[in-house]
């Protein structure tokens, strides 16, 4: 999209997405670990598990927001 060569494009994509994905995973998995500790019998066959998963995904979004804002502000990522 930026007219970069293959190697430069891959490096730019890794820079832009690695930090975002790590922030998302920390927020989501951190929340799921907290839910698993609070509800020891939680299993993927329970509806409550999937409700908690949705809440964890929102937590991941919340932790990703400031990282994406910083990456956009410093020109490492483009606005969508």
SSE layout and pairing:
Blueprint: H1 6-38, H2 47-73
Helix pairs in contact: 1-2
Structural description of this entry:
The chain has 80 residues and is mostly helical. It has one domain. It has two helices and no strands. It has helices at 6-38, 47-73. α1 (6-38) packs antiparallel against α2 (47-73). The longest helix has 33 residues, at 6-38. The protein is elongated, with a radius of gyration of 16 Å. The model has no long low-confidence stretch (mean pLDDT 90).
Number of strands: 0
- In round numbers, the mean pLDDT is 90
Specify the helix fraction band. over 70%
Oligomer type? single chain
* Poorly predicted spans: none
**Total number of helical segments?**
2
Shape: elongated
Alpha carbon gyration radius: 16 Å
Share in β-strands: under 5%
Order of helices and strands: HH
Give the N-to-C terminal Cα separation: 12 Å
Biggest sheet overview: none
Give the class from helix and strand content and strand pairing: mainly alpha
Total count of domains: 1
């Amino acid at each position: 999209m930026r007219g970069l060569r293959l190697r430069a494009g891959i490096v730019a994509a890794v820079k832009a997405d690695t930090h975002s994905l790590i922030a998302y995973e920390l927020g989501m998995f951190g929340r799921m670990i907290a839910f698993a500790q609070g509800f020891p019998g939680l299993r993927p066959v329970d509806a409550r598990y999937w409700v908690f998963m949705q809440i964890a995904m929102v937590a991941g979004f919340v932790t990703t927001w400031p990282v994406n804002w910083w990456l956009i502000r410093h020109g490492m990522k483009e606005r969508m």
